[in-house]
Amino acid sequence: MLVSTLHRMTGLAMTAGTLVLTWGLVALASGQNAWDIYSGFLGSIVGTIILIGFTWALFQHMMSGIRHLIMDTGAGLEIGVSRKLSILTFVGSFGLTGLVWAAVLLG
């Protein structure tokens, strides 16, 4: 149930994240001053937290979608297997988010 609820919530979070990315495109088209404001915001602690949250929401939504795809085939419907797949969605989403941000911060 938690994974299903989070799937919906991450869908909403990705919508909000897309609005932030759209703000970036508008800022880019609006000139250097607008871009400096946008990049300054994303470079702040709050902006970085939003970007990390957006990245996690994207990966959690993706992993949950893969779980649903597996279950749509008729596999993984047993309670024990379903719980393991649910845990794997979190492991996968946090792991992928960590890898991406490690690459961003170290690269």
Would you kindly provide a written description of the structure presented here, covering whatever features stand out?
The protein has helices at about 1-30, 30-45, 45-70, 80-105. It is an all-alpha fold and about 110 residues long. The longest helix is centred in the N-terminal third of the chain and has 29 residues, at about 1-30. It is elongated, with a radius of gyration of 17 Å. The model has no long low-confidence stretch (mean pLDDT about 95).
- Which stretches are poorly predicted, pLDDT < 50 over at least 5 residues? none
Tell me the span between the first and last alpha carbons: 37 Å
Biggest pleated sheet: none
Structural class: mainly alpha
Helix content: over 70%
The count of strands amounts to 0
Taken from the alpha-carbon principal axes, the silhouette is elongated
The percentage of residues in β strands lies in under 5%
Q: What string, H for helix and E for strand, traces the elements in order?
A: HHHH
Helical stretch tally: 4
What's the Cα radius of gyration?
Answer: 17 Å
Mean pLDDT: 95
